[in-house]
Amino acid sequence: DEVLQSFFEVAKRAGTTILNATNSQTSSSTTYLDTKKNSADLVTETDKAVEKLISTTLLSKYPTFKFMGEETYKPGTPLDDSPTFIVDPIDGTTNFVHGHPYVSIALGFALEQKSVVGLVFNPYTGIMYYATKGGGAWKKVLEPTGDGDWKLRNERVKLPIGEPSAFAGLDGTMVAVEWGSDRSGSNWQTKVNTWNRLGRSKDEGGAMVHSARCLGSAALNLCAVAEGHVDIYWEGGCWAWDVCAGWIILTEAGGIMADGNPPSDGNERWEIPITHRKYLAVRAAPGGQKETVKEFWGH
Ligand code: IPD
Predict the structure, then answer these.
(1) What PANTHER family does its record include (predicted)?
(2) Domain identity same for 137 and 279
(3) Domain residues for 255?
């Protein structure tokens, strides 16, 4: 609970920084200053500034905890069992650069490599999702006060907003599938094949989901599944900071995070580590979750 309180405070300050960057007269804070692994993997001054704000604030309060953030991560550094903040300062950087308001600050906290506290805040809509292990998943809506602070716009609403729709299997679902920034080799081919099979009509061997969305923020996608306006979210290529915060929000709302790969040895694994990088998030009717995952794996 104490970590969650710290998340509330720092998320509001980070949200103000993002809004100020968006409203600033110069566009340097929203223009990407660099690319990472390829020209579709963007980073801005604001990603770096927000990560610094978050890490400095959290580590000054909790100096013995570790910090893993998207912008300062040193490739190859393993996640260990220590209490660790796992943070994406701007999840949806491509949206941010394009002014598309599906962007979030994703604050996760892991103990023994499991997500136990999560907060996901979209400063453009003011929607904030949060959860602690065993404490349920919640949502509230904030609005900026104009002097750098935020106030509550609505009463907080307990998730689930409604019962999950009574689906089992892919028929009639709304699915989020991301392009991600990795557009090459077998990873890209898997994404294309999955997209193709999900959307195709049944007579042509497809699954005939209702529709698919590519929204651009893994953390918000997980919250969308938790809330039930997306039924399934699949991605290969995410990092722990993309999913740590949303993971606990989803599971506290009754959803599951399964392996995004079909089991290669025939043994189903329903527990995957937060560093796994290939995920399938589902919140179906109780009893329908595993069936849905298995049907997805079949594709
Ligand atoms: C990305 C977003 C995107 C997902 C990518 C992530 P970033 O995070 O979550 O939706 O497809 O895999 O890397 O780079 O905007 O923080």
Answers:
(1) INOSITOL MONOPHOSPHATASE, INOSITOL-1-MONOPHOSPHATASE-RELATED
(2) no
(3) 174-298
